[in-house]
Each structure stands twice: as structure tokens, then as C-alpha cells.
Design a protein that fits this description.
243 residues; Alpha-Beta Plaits; Pseudouridine synthase; 14 strands; alpha+beta
Amino acid sequence: MILDGRVTVDGRKAIDPARRVTPERIAIAIDGVRPARATGAVTIVLHKPRGYLTTRADPHGRKTIYDLLADVPERVIPVGRLDLATSGLLILTNDTPFANWLTDPATALPRVYLVTVEGRVAAATIAQLERGVVVDGEHLAAASAAVRKASGQESHLTITLTEGRNREIRRLLDAVDHPVTRLRRVQFGGLSLGDLEPGTWRYLSAAELTAAFPGYQSLDSHATSRRRLLAQGEPRKRVPRPK
């Protein structure tokens, strides 16, 4: 459509398909008509199950998180990613500046994971995880790590990161010879997964977001009475877990 000259940005014809824009700050029109979109910013939390890709569509036909969000009327994007085999807390929003702030390494928000690994993890290995290791020329380290329980066959850990690097926990634990067998994110900043069931989602109110992310000061647009009511209600539709 852009190459055909059908799209305008702030009244001017768009000519570069690769141009990056902030949707909340511009006016986009197609054939002179602005697409309808929800009023104000919207943020939701999803309990992503294992077996779902964090993407809008998959060329191989695998399930994606958007199969779980069919009843979300707003167009929301994930804040970071959880890989196919990882479950847990995933934030999605249509507020681009907020998403950028959440994922900015300088913000250094804690992400807390419950991790099951092969073998018994020793205290020396926990110290090594916190000091960091070099993997493919990249220094990886946990902000904190602790053993919740352990046996000869497996260990259950709590690991906190402050960046969203690609598959960081799996790469970190592979490097110390304790491959991950199960991984679930349970907290992002001050927002916890709580009792939200796998495959369900709910709106987050401005009050929740302000409490969870007090360092970000532009959340007023999230505060609509309809969304506050939804945020206080029951979680949305549950989708059966993949086998």
C-alpha cells in the first residue's frame, strides 16, 4: 500500500516502508481514511502457556499468543518475548513509549523466573551465575539466583534478570552444565503473575501500572472506567494447554 501511494502520515504521503513511527503520536490514513482505533492506551497481562510463540503469525502454522487474544479488541504488542517452551507473565500494550521504557536496558526492571534444571546446583554454581559467564563473546549474569530445592536429578531455582536478552537464562545455565527443563516468568518489575491461569489475560488499570512501575510517569491515559472495571473482574477466556 505504501509503494502504491495509498498511505499518508500526518497528511504527507509515506514513501519509505521501513520508516519507524510512534502510532500514538501520528495520524495515519489509508486512501484518505484514518483507521479506527481504541481511545487511550491499553495494557494487558497474559499468562502465556508453553507451546505458544510470541509472534502474530507463524508460517508453519504453530500456535501463537494471538490465538489466546482473539477477544482483545485493541491491537496490542508484546513487551519483550517468551520463547516457545517458556511460560508465564507477558505484558502486551498499544502504548509504544511505555513498551520502550519497560524494555530499555537503562530501566533495569527485574524479571523473576522459576527455573527447573538438570542436576544438583551447588552454592559455587549460584555464585558463578551471579558473577556471570561469557557465552559467544557476550557476558551473561543473573542479578540474583537462589536454590529453592534440589535433588540428585534436578534443582528448582529462582533467578532474577534486569535485561531481556535473547534466551539468557537457558544460555546461562547451559554454560554451567545445568540445562533448563522448565522455565516460567512470575514477575516483571512490580507486577506479579499471581493466580492468573495459563491461557488467560486481563486488563491492567492505571492504578495497578503506577504501583508496579512507579518510575514511569505517563500512565494517565490508561485510566478509563471501563478498563478499570474489567481489570477488577474475572480473567478472560481460558484456552486449553497444548499437549
